[in-house]
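BUG: 3D viewer hangs when loading the predicted structure for this chain

Environment: internal workstation, default settings.
Expected: structure renders.
Actual: progress bar stalls at 90%.

Input used:
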Amino acid sequence: MVNDPRVTAVLARLGGVYRDPARVDRDASSLLKSSVGSTLVPISATRVENNGYASTVLVLQGTIAIFFRGNTYQVLVDIYLPSGYVSSDDVIWCDGAILSKTVICQDIVFLSPCPNQSPLC
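Structure tokens produced before the viewer hung:
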């Protein structure tokens, strides 16, 4: 699979934020190339955690397509990939909601298809 050059460029600007930038690039690119995440745009933004720690991280911003009972809905999301992404205790922030193995975006719940957050969606 070829990585999305927009993700690669953002990760290059972020420097050493991620322990495994190749994995972050692969996972984010996979989501951007999927039908669900094709309208997302990778940017960098500052994320302040509950403990006050602030870091600039990769954010996938835009809408994701949700298919429900024969209809397609576009849900506005900001998906923050924290600096510890790809650890055993992954937490991904999406529009202010905490995500781990279950994805919650604006009251819609999606179960992760794979353990250990193997691609994002």
